[in-house]
Write a structure and sequence with these properties.
single chain; elongated
């Protein structure tokens, strides 16, 4: 429970700090920021899927490898940024794990539900979302 509270607090703090500075607001960044931060997540997922398929892993194992390659601990990145930077530099640096975490959540959410529904996981594809 303490870990969940700490994680949520870190996300809220990151949002507050990165949105208070006009020059570092998450949604006011150049397109290169979004591309540079979001691409490793999406490309990592795709590349892991391709490699896992090439080495003939079973479909549930492909999903596992792909998720593990895409999933990064953004809490550690945010904690390091808090420890290393102050002011505008802190606001700018916190926006990286914050945005990557959002891309990661959306990308993996879509990927995992799709993999489940097409029968690539061990969960029954015909079950409802609430049961699984």
């Amino acid at each position: 429970k303490l870990g969940n509270v700490a994680g949520i607090t870190l996300v809220v703090y990151s949002i507050m700090v990165s949105s208070q500075n006009k020059n570092a607001r998450l949604w006011d960044r150049d397109w290169k920021f979004y591309l540079g931060v979001g691409c490793p997540c999406v490309l990592g997922l795709m590349l892991a899927n391709i490699i896992a398929t090439c080495v003939k892993l079973k479909k549930p194992e492909r999903v596992t490898v792909s998720v593990e390659c895409c999933m990064q601990n953004t809490g550690i990145a945010a904690s390091v940024a808090i420890a290393m930077f102050t002011g505008t530099d802190l606001a700018e640096s916190l926006s990286v794990p914050l945005y990557y975490g959002m891309v990661e959540a959306i990308t993996l959410g879509i990927y995992c539900v799709t993999a489940w529904k097409i029968g690539w996981t061990k969960a029954p594809a015909n079950e409802s979302f609430c049961v699984v």
